[in-house]
Amino acid sequence: MSRVRSSRSLFSHHAVLSWLLLLLLGINNAMSELEERQTYIIHMDHSYKPDSFSTHESWHLSTLKSVSTSPVNHKEMLLYSYSHVMQGFSARLTPSELSQLEKSPAHRATYRETFGKLFTTHTTKFLGLKPNSGIWPAASYGDGVIIGIIDTGIWPESRSFSDKGMSPVPERWKGQCEYGTAFSQSCCNRKLVGARSFSKGLIAAGRNISTELDFDSARDNVGHGTHTSSTAAGNYVVGASHFGYARGSARGVAPRAHLAMYKVLWATDTYESAATDVLAGMDQAIVDGVDIMSLSLGFDQTPYFSDVIAIASLSAIEQGIFVVCATGNDGGTSSTHNGAPWIMTVGAGTIDRSFVATMTLGNGLVVEGTSYFPQSIYITNAPLYYGRGDANKETCKLSALDPNEVAGKVVLCDNEYSIPSLVLPTNSGTSVLEYVTGMSNATVKALRFVSTKLGTKPAPQVAYFSSRGPDPISPGVLKPDILAPGADVLAAVAPNVPFMQIGDYDLVTDYALFSGTSMAAPHVAGVAALLKAVHSDWSPAAIRSAIMTTANTIDNIGSAFRDQWTGLPASPLDFGAGHINPNKAMDPGLIFDMDLQDYVEFLCGLGYTRKQMSAILRRNQWNCSGKPNDLNYPSFVAIFTKGAESPKVRNFSRVLTNVGNDTATYQAVVEVPTGMRIKTEPSILTFTSKNQKRGFVVTVEIDADSPSVTYGYLKWIDQHKHTVSSPIVAIYNK
């Protein structure tokens, strides 16, 4: 059909077209009016609140009413009022309303709604936790400490959250169990002491929360929050299993600690979290009185003054709350999230347990690979197929394989897929590839699934997905801080969601395996709870220092940690100070302590404007000394730039506080590679009482032909067997 029309035909319909045009304009105007309202987080200066308002929320509502340009319900405009993470609120505003509000002297900063993503057992034994010695009995398994989990919700009926043997809920606790879909106050107990949900931000942004897959309550829909909660502080469970894997027990790191869930992630198309909801959850956790806050999610990396997690975490730290965050699963260089220096940023490591399948080829070669296929299957004398010469068949792309070609055969693929399979390491895979391409009748003599292997070596390794440094916001602060178990972690999940499909059957389970830095973070939260139980007077910085300076730096074969993906040696840019060692962290000897003013001085050195400083510090007055100030961090990063005039020497100042024996003498011991030199002044630190402080200066020097990344260690060793270890990384930007 021809699409050409005469001008006469067009003009003869002029009246109709005009009417349609006006109608469309009206519709577009109505749509633009609806689309004009966007969600913003408004940071206010609470010193401007008139005394006539009894609450901040009433002041916020009045403020919204004063700038409103249309007849709307102001309570519907207001999503949340924040009182701790910042003084302010989140609301749906038109551009003109926002403009009016920003003219107010009480306005401090505006943040447009953003969306974050989820960074998605035997591990307690791997961490060296024992019931009769070390930190577990010393901390009474975390008794009395409250861990707040910011995640996808919780499945309260899981046996991991039984309150058998739990002490009463601490009197200081102010939280509660919210009523909601399939959730009531009876869901809480002495283990799960609180559960709340926050979704106003997602709903206001038009995200469709599934009513079929999710619950309008703190109940978990995918099992992730249940998993992280049980990892941090799940109670003892006998007979936990993952379809035959890991039969035995699943136990959290701090099994006598109390838990509180703040659900901010929901079943939407993207499983995103709204910044407004995350802020509300963190704000409520501070109000309720948590001791530890664990987040397994993150937003795009931005400067601290516009990073909602960084701002909220600094407020929590000021209240003495230890904040643990996952570093992310992006895997590449300079991909770390949640890297503010007041946050404990956690990377993921492997453990010494693997789930394997074993294959014997027709030529007698035996290879072993990772397999999560749950059925006990034994395959014998099957042809081995490889789609040689066809890239799609070689990688087993969807619909590329001809069923008639592969029926009854074992298929070799060059990528990951989920049907019954084993994943081979590169060297074994190469051997199989050589065999199948060199034989016209290649066969598999035997293939056996479902085998749990303990004592896997080397372990730990840096998990292939774990985000690495240098940190994109502050490369001079080593991130991640620490490595913790994050691969194949067994813990509780929501049993109403099918975990996997075998044939025509959907399989469900109470316990399952997950991997991600989101699994590593709750391990550290659990260890922090144990340390808090033993050392109730320690600051968040003291807890972080104890964890970092006592970390393991070699694997179970006595070598430096390796990268799981490449098999090559990793660096502190990948694993931070090392792999967490809870028992050693209980008695670190010395700590690098800090308070709010240390972080203020750090921020003063970033060149932020007064408005930006006010946004992150949540106040109008602060003190910048103006003197060069090194953050008293337990690790060191020296950044050098290529050039004849560029110095290859960097000095750092640090202060150590004695938390060990009353009297102790520490000797500096330096471990450095060729081309790097580290000196300390003084080289001996003498302490005559607890809480005594001693300062020192570290000088780092590298050769002009040094590699782009090199590292060593500074270790302070005393006569009481304390070793206080700090990684020192030199980055040479050539």
Automatic annotation (TrEMBL):
Belongs to the peptidase S8 family. Gene3D superfamilies: 2.60.40.2310, 3.50.30.30, Peptidase S8 propeptide/proteinase inhibitor I9, Peptidase S8/S53 domain. One of its GO terms (cellular component) is extracellular region. Keywords: Glycoprotein, Hydrolase, Protease, Secreted, Serine protease, Signal. It is found in: Secreted. GO terms for biological process: proteolysis. This is Subtilisin-like protease SBT1.7. The keyword Repeat does not apply. Pfam families: fn3_6, Inhibitor_I9, Peptidase_S8. It comes from the Eukaryota. Residues 39-112 form the Inhibitor I9 domain. Residues 142-555 form the Peptidase S8/S53 domain. The active site is at D151, H224, S518. GO terms for molecular function: serine-type endopeptidase activity. InterPro entries: Peptidase_S8/S53_dom (IPR000209), Peptidase_S8/S53_dom_sf (IPR036852), Peptidase_S8_Ser-AS (IPR023828), Peptidase_S8_subtilisin-rel (IPR015500), Peptidases_S8_3 (IPR034197), S8pro/Inhibitor_I9 (IPR010259), S8pro/Inhibitor_I9_sf (IPR037045), SBT (IPR045051). Residues 630-729 form the Subtilisin-like protease fibronectin type-III domain. Its main location: secreted. Residues 1-32 form the signal peptide.
